[in-house]
């Protein structure tokens, strides 16, 4: 381990070098041969532990969900109907609960289908891991006819969460109660990963023809503050937290989760794709769907494919980032967007053309080893925990290797995205949360070395990948 003084000197040199490299490689492009590695079949054929994935081919377009095959409902949700508690319900969560109970009683059965009649269902919906996969589908003319909506944000006090929603989870299946209890046990707030409207851990979970919304700030706009818990980080305010993170959908560890003609509505952090455990990825597929938001609104560390969909940046804040992947460096694929329209709401901020496709989430970092910070004696060294107590901090190998991977191909990119530099650094040099954009494994290894971390001796990595692994890239995109 280098001494703090040597580390700071290395950071000073790294900061200057990285500023040049980022500008020179602002828009890396895949070759036609490289692009073939990012087809649906290739990206979605492996899952599991990073660096040791198992092969499990998956073709979501062949599934009845994508082919719009009519389903026969096992359960029906109708807010205007009369519930019998067995087959018909007025609450989506109650129908999910019954499906989980029935799956436990009949674990060898097939997929369970839940029809949700048109209407707006103002509730939280938690779907635990189960012996049987669940399909949730609407029957309206459009996905907008069937809406599941709530309005939690990351700064909601736990006591308020319990008061507002505790009764909803009383007397449900133990696995659902446990999900609620995990949020209720936090303090003092529910945090970003407790703010979701719909939360699924169900392998093979499907949704079709419906809307999932986090309505937080939707009536007023989200421009009240320009700082979020993954945006701020200065030496004098190292733990700045505000209330703009508000997740619509959290897919946690659910492999082969599939979404067809689904609308995801929110501002910051609309869609969270989270591994069930560190360095283990699962797969999600979004087809003919619509996702909107402003900051980091598609984020997480799993493998996800977005196909023939629309992704809209909302512009009432002066910053906007579509993606915030924190993919582990050994995981083969992060987020892939293929034949996607990147649009905006046409607001003045969007028209400025300075929004971004993504920035790589420096997940759980408390200090940065990648550029100098204006604090006397500052150092950020390798440690067993990520922490900062001025002027020194530590960072773990797990945090260092959440590099973030995202490829955009065959897509139409609106004029709201910065044409010269669509990939952003994570925050600005000089802040505790800063990390430069890393376009490949070459950048990753170079940055580690410049920061004083030997990839082999300090982190236990093998040889540097050759050819380099792709982290951020494009192929065959067009522009407005």
Automatic annotation (TrEMBL):
Pathway: Glycan metabolism; pectin degradation; 2-dehydro-3-deoxy-D-gluconate from pectin: step 1/5. Residues 243-366 form the Pectinesterase catalytic domain. Its EC number is 3.1.1.11. GO terms for biological process: cell wall modification; pectin catabolic process. Residues 1-19 form the signal peptide. It holds the Pfam family Pectinesterase. The active site is at 296. The keyword ATP-binding does not apply. It comes from the Bacteria. PROSITE patterns: PECTINESTERASE_2 (PS00503). GO terms for molecular function: pectinesterase activity. Keywords: Aspartyl esterase, Hydrolase, Signal. GO terms for cellular component: cell outer membrane. InterPro entries: Pectin_lyas_fold, Pectin_lyase_fold/virulence, Pectinesterase_Asp_AS, Pectinesterase_cat. It catalyses: [(1->4)-alpha-D-galacturonosyl methyl ester](n) + n H2O = [(1->4)-alpha-D-galacturonosyl](n) + n methanol + n H(+). The keyword Hydrolase applies. Belongs to the pectinesterase family. This is Pectinesterase. It comes from Pseudoduganella albidiflava.
């Amino acid at each position: 381990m280098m001494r703090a003084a040597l580390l700071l000197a290395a950071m000073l040199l790294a900061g200057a070098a990285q500023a040049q490299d980022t500008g020179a490689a602002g828009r890396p492009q895949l070759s036609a041969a490289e692009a073939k590695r990012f087809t649906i079949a290739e990206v979605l054929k492996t899952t599991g532990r990073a660096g040791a994935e198992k092969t499990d081919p998956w073709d979501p377009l062949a599934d009845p969900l994508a082919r719009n095959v009519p389903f026969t409902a096992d359960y029906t949700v109708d807010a205007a109907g009369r519930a019998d508690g067995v087959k018909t319900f007025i609450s989506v969560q109650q129908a999910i609960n019954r499906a989980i109970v029935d799956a436990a009683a009949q674990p060898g059965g097939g997929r369970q289908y839940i029809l949700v009649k048109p209407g707006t269902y103002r509730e939280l919906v938690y779907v635990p891991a189960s012996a049987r996969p669940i399909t949730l589908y609407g029957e309206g003319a459009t996905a907008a006819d069937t809406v599941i909506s709530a309005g939690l944000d990351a700064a909601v006090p736990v006591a308020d969460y319990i008061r507002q929603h505790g009764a909803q989870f009383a007397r449900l299946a133990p696995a659902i109660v446990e999900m609620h209890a995990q949020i209720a046990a936090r303090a003092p707030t529910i945090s970003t990963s407790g703010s979701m409207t719909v939360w699924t851990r169900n392998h093979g979970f499907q949704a079709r023809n419906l809307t999932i919304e986090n309505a937080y700030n939707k009536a007023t706009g989200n421009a009240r503050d320009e700082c979020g818990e993954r945006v701020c980080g200065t030496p004098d305010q190292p733990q700045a937290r505000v209330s703009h993170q508000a997740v619509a959908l959290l897919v946690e560890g659910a492999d082969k989760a599939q979404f067809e003609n689904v609308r995801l509505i929110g501002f910051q952090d609309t869609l969270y794709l989270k591994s069930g455990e560190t360095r283990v990825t699962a797969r999600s597929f979004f087809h003919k769907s619509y996702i909107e938001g402003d900051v980091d609104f598609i984020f997480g560390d799993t493998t996800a494919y977005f196909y023939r969909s629309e992704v809209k940046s909302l512009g009432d804040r002066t910053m906007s980032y579509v993606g915030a992947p924190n993919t582990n460096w050994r995981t083969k694929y992060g987020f892939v967007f293929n034949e996607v329209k990147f649009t905006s709401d046409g607001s003045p901020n969007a028209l400025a053309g300075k929004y971004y496709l993504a920035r790589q989430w420096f997940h759980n970092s408390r200090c940065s080893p990648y550029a100098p910070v204006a604090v006397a004696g500052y150092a950020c060294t390798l440690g067993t925990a990520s922490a900062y107590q001025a002027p020194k901090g530590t960072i773990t190998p797990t945090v260092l290797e959440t590099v973030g991977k995202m490829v955009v191909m065959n897509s139409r990119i609106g004029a709201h995205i910065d044409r010269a530099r669509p990939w952003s650094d994570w925050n600005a040099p000089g802040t505790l949360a800063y990390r430069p954009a890393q376009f490949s494994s070459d950048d990753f290894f170079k940055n580690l070395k410049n920061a004083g971390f030997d990839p082999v001796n300090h982190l236990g990595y093998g040889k540097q990948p050759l050819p380099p692994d792709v982290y951020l890239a494009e192929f065959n995109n067009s522009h407005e």
